[in-house]
Design goal:
This protein has 312 residues and is an alpha/beta fold. It contains 9 helices and 12 strands.
Length: 312
């Protein structure tokens, strides 16, 4: 491009400091999420939140050619406003951190943490019936950056890993078997990890039928979006023992209202959508955007492009 583009953004100025450090030649214009826009607000690049903003319909018409969403998912974004504009997101930015969290919660199940901690004498010392990840089947729903990071960290534990994806494209990780049937994936699974985007095609993917394919006592982990799991069906599966434990970092709605059954169920481990959290997590979300700004100026292909028709 002949001159540096201008970035319009709803994000706070603090979050844009890394962008200024790498691209000092670019003007960044902070725009409030609400209220009318000044006539002179124009720019080629828009950096916004997943849910957009009240003034997004007006802002996106101010010369914007490329939209980047500050987040790893784009469910909830008003795709109808895009037109022919390109769209990217920070897909995969939290993959390593989330994969560590998944390994931690699977180990917690196998090693019965925190149940095995004691604060008084026990009847039998030096005795326990703990499990192991070795030879356990890990079923990954979705096989994007997060699921691949989980697989790479699970392989040293000698887990058997299968992954469900929309196509039968060869796995980028040789030891991971790709399947295209949810029934095949869930059959004999010990740990099931939901790591797919939420789209109309995946909403309530895990329902009564899907839970019936599991062997009794399976462990469900959701680090994707709550909408992929039919929570009423999950409650029935927990009560029947078909699901032995559900570790949920994502639920619906978020925040979960007080008194919801998920808070009190004895076989649910609930966390407030924090599996992505780690030192410099916020900085990591902006790295893809920084790289893409350089690519945009050079006319190169942008990373982590979103397909509005597919919804991710």
């Amino acid at each position: 491009m002949s001159s540096a583009p201008r970035i319009l953004t709803h994000l706070s100025p603090r979050l844009l400091e890394p962008v200024r450090a790498v691209h000092p030649e670019i003007e960044i214009v902070h725009v409030s999420t609400e209220g009318p826009l000044d006539d002179d607000i124009r720019g080629e690049i828009l950096l916004t939140y997943t849910s957009g903003a009240p003034n997004l319909p007006d802002l996106i018409e101010r010369g914007v050619e490329w939209v980047h969403v500050y987040g790893t998912g784009v469910d909830g974004f008003p795709f109808d406003l895009l037109g022919r504009r390109r769209m990217t997101c920070s897909r995969g930015a939290s993959a390593r951190i989330i994969s560590e969290w998944v390994i931690a919660v699977m180990l917690a199940v196998e090693k019965q943490l925190p149940e095995i901690w004691i604060d008084e004498p026990v009847e039998h010392w030096n005795m326990a019936r703990l499990g192991s990840l070795q030879n356990k089947k890990l079923a990954l729903i979705g096989f994007g950056a997060i699921a691949q990071a989980i697989a790479r960290r699970a392989l040293p534990f000698e887990m058997r890993i299968e992954a469900l994806r929309r196509t039968s494209t060869a796995s980028p990780i040789e030891q991971v078997r790709i399947v295209t049937s949810l029934e095949e994936l869930l059959t004999d699974a010990d740990h099931v990890v939901v790591a797919a985007p939420e789209t109309p095609a995946t909403k309530h993917l895990l329902d009564d039928v899907a839970f019936a394919w599991l062997k009794p006592g399976a462990h469900l982990v959701n680090i994707a979006r709550g909408g992929l799991v039919d929570q009423d069906a999950l409650e029935r599966a927990l009560e029947s023992g078909q699901v032995g434990l559900a570790t949920l970092d994502c639920v619906t709605p978020e925040p979960l209202p007080a008194g919801h059954w998920l808070y009190a169920h004895p076989r649910v481990r609930l966390s407030p959508h924090i599996s992505w959290s780690a030192p410099k997590s916020y900085a990591g979300l902006i790295e893809t955007f920084i790289e893409n700004v350089g690519r945009y100026q050079r006319g190169d292909e942008l990373l982590s492009q979103v397909d509005p028709d597919a919804g991710y």
